[in-house]
Write a structure and sequence with these properties.
The complex is a heterodimer of chains A (about 110) and B (about 110). By secondary structure, chain A is an all-beta fold. Helix content of chain A is about 0%, strand content about 60%. In chain A, strand 7 and strand 8 form a beta hairpin. Chain B is an all-beta fold and about 110 residues long. Classes of the chains: A mainly beta (about 110), B mainly beta (about 110). At the A-B interface, strand 4, strand 5, strand 9 and strand 10 of A face strand 5 and strand 10 of B.
């Protein structure tokens, strides 16, 4: 059974700092991995989708990496801003049934001015 | 540019009452999902659909029913609401399997008293 873990559960940093969020998964036979952002009281917004054949995917100040063999992904946020404060979730399709996504519980990021 | 729209956004029910949550997407997506999000539990899949006229059980289907009579709509029903069903419900859709980008609605906050 695919399980996704995100550590830490919460992170507080000063504005301008570069930071890394971690995601690990137990079954490395994945099609892809997605990173989402969730603002309080809102739905999830897709940030990056990184395919299993890719090592990295970039969008603006965000960079996601994927290491299937070790079951890990990282989301790098450069020059963090208070507007980056949100909960970040990663998700992977389940093993043998790619209709469904399995989510981590998220990392709540606070960027202090 | 509607994307995924959920109706209603908020609802309070009494124990034993019934209701239907509506999810509509205008992206011609085949796959649609209903999740619930609870503190400390993360996102859990209730039911999903891989196309018009099809539905399947997810991780926590008990107490819920779904229907996908039209490709663009996915309905989640609670026949006899219980306090344990107090949660935030999210609908999502994707073009094909979970190896394509998922788009989420803004959520329905349901309280059962």
């Amino acid at each position: 059974k695919q399980e996704v873990t995100q550590i830490p559960a919460a992170l507080s940093v000063p504005e301008g700092e570069n930071l890394v969020l971690n995601c690990s998964f137990t079954d490395s036979a994945i099609y892809n991995l997605q990173w989402f952002r969730q603002d309080p009281g809102k739905g999830l917004t897709s940030l990056l989708l990184i395919q299993s054949s890719q090592r990295e995917q970039t969008s603006g100040r965000l960079n996601a990496s994927l290491d299937k063999s070790s079951g890990r992904s990282t989301l790098y946020i450069a020059a963090s801003q208070p507007g980056d404060s949100a909960t970040y979730l990663c998700a992977v399709p389940t093993q043998g049934g790619s209709e469904k996504l399995v989510f981590g519980k998220g990392t709540k990021l606070t960027v202090n001015p | 540019n509607a994307g995924v729209t959920q109706t209603p956004k908020f609802r309070v029910l009494k124990t034993g009452q019934s209701m239907t949550l509506l999810c509509a997407q205008d992206m011609n997506h085949e796959y649609m999902y209903w999740y619930r999000q609870d503190p400390g539990m993360g996102l859990r899949l209730i039911h999903y659909s891989v196309g018009e006229g099809t539905t399947a059980k997810g991780e926590v289907p008990d107490g819920y029913n779904v229907s996908r009579l039209k490709k663009q709509n996915f309905l989640l029903g609670l026949e006899s609401a219980a306090p344990s069903q107090t949660s935030v419900y999210f609908c999502a859709s994707s073009y094909q399997r979970a190896n394509t980008e998922a788009f989420f609605g803004q959520g329905t906050r349901l309280t059962v008293v």
